[in-house]
Specification:
Largest interface: A-B, 80 and 79 residues
Shape of chain A: elongated
Radius of gyration of chain A: 38 Å
Strand content of chain B: under 5%
Distance between the termini of chain B: 63 Å
Strand order of the largest sheet of chain B: 2-1-3
Radius of gyration of chain B: 25 Å
Distance between the termini of chain A: 21 Å
Number of strands of chain A: 21
Structural class of chain A: alpha+beta
Order of helices and strands of chain B: HHHHHHHEEHHHHHHEHHHHH
Largest sheet of chain B: 3 strands, antiparallel
Oligomer: heterodimer
Largest sheet of chain A: 9 strands, antiparallel
Chain lengths: ~525, ~525
């Protein structure tokens, strides 16, 4: 084509482009990779802002908010930067990005598909010489040359095909053509991830519930963070009814040092046992531990945290009989009871980690085990109900609260430490959006990325020009050029050996090219 | 002919296998050797060399390898190259050995605690895999970078890249040294099989990203980016670091104050006070001024073509290196030699009691009061809280290099960066010639960025799945999650620019640099600057 014709063609193309209807131009723009990159950069900026500006649901937000100047509060608040990730513009951005991915994929799919269904079995000399990897060999051709070249290609893991066109014979070989679909599978997996997560957010909710052993509830609490730019943050809790009741039957804390504190540094695990009474499905007992959630009817229960006010799970009581001075040890569980041979029944009432009398009433000074004591209900054989206290620390003699009750002096000899209550977090995800998003979408994304990056579509051509006694070898790949270059050199030298040809043009590997040219 | 082809077939397979083995052999040897060290540790017991000592040896080998490669760049030497490669492999060997030995030490640490308290339970061995805190991650991060380096530099044509990547790996280990490798109990939520998967992937991805960054810097150098332009960016980074250390007191008060520890087990307790160290502040200010002058001079050179400005700029560069070396020297000296910290602090605060109020506020913040409760405390009450704390604890206070690891590592990074820029300005053309070709560097940059992208994707997804199992929600825009997402999106943009605009080369290099900086922000900034669920790592 002459330069003038080229210029005209370009001008025509430009005017045609300008003459395109607006909706088509908009579609071209929406589907362009450049626009996609712009969206990605915007997403980066917004996400980064959400990191450096504390979000309203992060612990310590109220103090942070109070430390801001009124101008900062107004600016960040008005722009929605205190809750960026749930803002309308962030979600809109994700939606547009999804649209961009879909449109760009549709736009480019036909070309990628053509690699698979319409392999380039024949190529002109001029086209082959434009390839990054090429060699021309001068040799006397013979009838078995094409087969020999095909064999070399196949030796190197390529699938080869010979096409005869008069004085020219084409040997085309390729490997990994499905790699062209890699990017589409990656984007499909990403869209599944977005969709699953969106479904999960729209149809589900997060809540938590505080459980004390013995407590029954059919409600969980949703937490909502409401920010008023004038008044600050308020945390609202809303009750949500469950279609079943939960009874906490046991809580346990595995400690590194059982005699140490119940704080997180001395903890191996927390366990909560619950009994679910469901009018539809009956009774279920479940154990929930850290990293071992429990799923039930779309609800997932997670061991979240504990209320670190000291309590006891199992207690060893030392009873000194006032009659004969004999000492008996009995084991008492939280919310449990035990009977003595004489018919006395000792029932657990409550536990105080740091016992103190406040206005004559039992109380705890702190959550620390400074003065552990258990309050007991004692039912005598005669049917009389009395209150007794058993202390861990030895009390001085004569203290009224330590006086014998029902013929026994009670002492708390030993106990297993647990917190007052456990907190379970509950995720309701009826359509398993999270599962679809992260298992299908997530693993799909990983598998497709591995497919994209660790494999490539390799194509080789050998054009045997009988009239010119030459063979043009050319090759192309869509990625992994460093190793491909070595493969090409190896194949080319093998072909050179069998043809005993002399090459007078070799590859110009220094030529810069877009790696994704067809 | 078919027989000849068959014979070649056999030779080809054997050649391929031996090529494969020879390519990967150094890495295989390093890894196998590290497992042998592990075996020795299990046999010998607690008297075996400590994991921190092994880490320091790894650091030394990384530095040696980098120095020898740099030497080779300026004065080609086959011996230097060979010793450099061997040093790099030894660095990886000791790095992994340190990590494996640490695993055993952590296991024995907790077993000893359990047995001492009469607890006969034996937790599973993977509970103690060293992926629990920033020290562990730093060790693994450096290993990932070292491993990626020795795999890439096996090709002689690109061996010089070790000069760019291994100093960074050494800085990561230096940071680890300053963080401190005390053995602590595992946070209960981390006791999951997902931890080795998720954090292991993070370490390797970060390591590859580090190498990608190093290749990007080499690319820019090869692509005739002016050394003076690089110096401007390094100068800005240095000024930024100096401005932000010591709670922004260097440029505002002309002083540098070091953090103060109180003894505590397992990790020392960082007090809300800082002690002024003599000379450090003024020297850092001078460094900052020299850097700003350097930036101004180089800007004049680049935009106005004033040759003399370049000369002046280089002098300011050298001066800034000298003053920075001195300031770090005085800082370390001050920390190592200062005694009676409590009394000295009291004397300093007598002259300026604002420190008590700052300390009181920090103490109040740790009590997790509500905004209203916090607002009700008066400055006088804050001061009283600060004074009370000092009185109760002054006899136990001490200084340590571990109080502000990120600050110290930041200053050292600035020094190394300034040093490199000064080095690049020496025989620059000769240096550019010795580097691999632009195409090779671009190809490697793309390959490592692609691997980083895939690695970060795996990091995000394994993290989300683990979060779904642990916290009940796969994604909550926690700071660390978002940081990893931001870095991943940057690499995604990088890969797509290559498709769309043919943005190979320099533009790709800039993306690779930004991506790595975002990874560093995720790795460090999130843990030290931002609150969130991930704050332990």
């Amino acid at each position: 084509m002459s330069p003038e014709t080229t210029k005209t063609a370009t001008k025509t193309a430009i005017s045609l482009a300008k003459g395109k209807p607006l909706w088509e131009r908009a579609l071209d723009f929406l589907s362009s990779v450049r626009f996609g990159i712009f969206l990605l950069c915007l997403l980066v900026v917004l996400s980064f802002l959400g990191m450096v500006i504390m979000q309203k649901n992060v612990q310590g937000f109220d103090t942070y908010f109070a430390s801001l100047t009124p101008a900062e509060r107004w600016l960040f608040g008005t722009l929605g930067l205190f809750d960026v990730y749930h803002s309308w513009y962030y979600n809109f951005l994700l939606l547009i990005l999804s649209l961009n991915i879909i449109l760009a994929s549709i736009d480019r799919f036909p070309k990628a598909w053509s690699y698979i269904v319409k392999p380039k079995l024949e190529a002109t000399r001029a086209w082959l010489l434009k390839q990054r990897y090429k060699e021309i060999l001068k040799t006397v051709s013979n009838d078995s040359l094409a087969e020999a070249i095909k064999a070399i290609f196949e030796e190197n893991g390529l699938k080869a095909k010979i096409t005869e066109r008069g004085p020219r014979t084409y040997v085309f070989a390729e490997k990994g053509k499905w790699n062209r679909m890699g990017a589409y599978i990656v984007h499909l997996a990403l869209l599944i991830l977005f969709l699953g997560h969106f479904v999960s957010l729209q149809t589900g909710f997060d809540a938590d519930v505080r459980l004390i052993p013995g407590q029954t509830t059919n409600q969980i609490q949703l937490i909502e963070f409401n920010l008023d730019l004038e008044k600050g943050l308020s945390v609202e809790r809303y009750n949500v009814d469950l279609p079943f009741t939960i009874t906490c039957t046991d809580i346990e804390q595995k400690l590194i040092d059982p005699k140490g504190s119940i704080d997180i540094n001395n903890t191996i695990d927390w366990r909560t046992q619950i009994r679910i009474d469901d009018p539809e499905y009956g009774t279920t007992i479940a154990d929930i531990q850290l990293n071992k959630p429990f799923s039930y009817r779309g609800y997932r229960f997670f061991q979240a945290s504990a209320i670190t006010v000291g309590n006891a799970r199992k207690m060893t009581l030392e009873l000194t009989s006032q009659k004969d001075g004999s000492v008996t040890e009995v084991l008492l569980e939280r919310n449990g009871f035990t009977s003595l041979p004489d018919g006395t029944v000792i029932e657990y009432d409550s536990f105080y980690p740091d016992f103190v009398l406040s206005n004559g009433q039992p109380d705890t000074r702190s959550g620390e085990y400074n003065n552990p004591a258990v309050r007991l209900n004692v039912l005598t054989p005669e049917g009389e109900r009395k209150i007794a206290y058993a202390f861990f620390n030895r009390l001085p003699d004569g203290i009224p609260i330590g006086a014998p009750v029902a013929g026994y002096k009670f002492r708390l000899k030993d106990f297993e430490k647990v917190p007052l209550a456990h907190v379970l977090s509950i995720k309701y995800d009826p359509y398993h959006g999270a599962f679809i998003a992260w298992y299908f979408g997530g693993f799909g994304l990983l598998a497709s990325l591995a497919f994209v990056f660790f494999f490539s579509h390799q194509r080789f051509w050998a054009l045997i020009e009988k009239s010119k006694d030459e063979i043009i070898i050319a090759a192309d790949t869509n990625r992994n050029h460093v190793s491909f270059e070595e493969k090409f050199k190896k194949i080319a030298s093998k072909i050179k050996e069998i043809t005993k040809g002399e090459n007078y043009v070799t590859s110009d590997f220094g030529e810069k090219r877009n790696h994704f040219d067809g | 002919m078919s027989q000849a082809i068959s014979a070649k077939n056999v030779t080809t397979s054997t050649d391929k296998r031996s090529e494969f083995v020879s390519y990967y052999l150094p890495a295989i040897l390093a890894i196998v050797g590290a497992f042998l060290m592990l075996f020795l540790r299990l046999q010998i017991g607690q008297s075996f060399i400590s994991d921190t000592a092994l880490m320091m040896i790894a650091l030394a080998f990384y530095v040696l390898a980098a120095v020898l490669q740099l030497t080779d760049l300026y004065a080609p030497s086959e011996i230097a190259r060979k010793i450099s490669f061997v040093s790099a492999v030894l660095g990886v060997f000791f790095n992994l050995s340190s990590w494996l030995v640490r695993w055993v030490n952590l296991y024995e640490f907790e077993i000893a605690q359990l047995r001492a308290s009469g607890n006969m339970e034996t937790p599973w061995i993977f509970r103690h895999i060293p992926f629990s805190n920033l020290y562990d991650l730093s060790l693994a991060f450096a290993f990932g970078a070292g491993l990626a380096t020795i795999l890439i530099i096996k090709r002689p044509s690109v061996q010089s890249l070790a000069a760019f990547s291994l100093p960074l790996a050494a800085i990561i280990l230096t940071l680890a040294r300053f963080i401190g490798g005390e053995y602590t109990n595992l946070m209960p939520i981390l006791d999951s099989y997902w931890r080795p998967i998720h954090v292991g992937v993070a370490s390797i991805s970060y390591g590859i990203a580090l190498v990608c960054f190093a290749i990007a810097v080499a690319y820019l150098l090869k692509d005739n980016v002016k050394v003076e332009a690089m110096a401007i960016w390094v100068g800005l980074f240095t000024v930024g670091v100096i401005a932000s250390v010591s709670k922004f007191s260097v440029f505002t008060e002309f002083v540098y104050r070091a953090g103060i520890f109180l003894p505590n087990s397992p990790k020392p307790f960082l007090t809300p006070f800082r002690l002024e160290l003599p000379f450090v502040g003024p020297l850092l200010v001078m460094t900052g001024i020299f850097c700003l002058a350097m930036i101004a001079s180089f800007l004049a050179y680049i935009y106005k073509n004033i040759e003399k400005a370049a000369l002046i700029g280089h002098w300011f560069l050298r001066l800034s290196i000298v003053t920075l070396v001195l300031s770090i020297g005085f800082l370390v000296y001050g920390i190592k030699t200062t005694e009676n910290v409590g009394e000295k602090l009291e004397a300093q605060l007598a002259a300026n009691s604002a420190g008590y109020i700052t300390a009181g506020k920090a103490i109040a913040e740790r009590q997790q009061l509500s905004a209203q409760e916090f607002a009700q405390i008066t400055p006088f009450q804050f001061e009283r809280m600060g004074r009370q704390f000092l009185q109760e604890n002054k006899s136990k206070m001490y200084l340590s290099l571990n109080t502000n690891p990120v600050e110290l590592a930041g200053l050292i990074t600035a020094l190394v960066a300034l040093g490199f820029v000064a080095l690049f300005s020496f025989k620059t053309e000769h240096l550019r010639e010795r580097l691999p070709s632009l195409e090779t560097l671009d190809g490697l940059m793309y390959k490592t960025a692609g691997l980083t992208f895939a690695g970060l994707a795996m990091l995000l997804i394994t993290g989300a799945i683990w979060a779904n199992e642990s916290w009940g929600r796969p994604w909550g825009f926690d700071s660390k999650e978002t940081g990893a997402l931001v870095a991943w999106l940057t690499y995604a943009a990088f890969l797509h620019t290559r498709i769309s605009r043919g943005w190979t080369g320099r533009a790709s290099a800039y993306f690779a640099i930004i991506g790595f900086l975002l990874i560093i922000f995720t790795y460090l900034g999130v843990s030290y600057l931002l609150p969130g669920l991930h704050s332990y790592a």
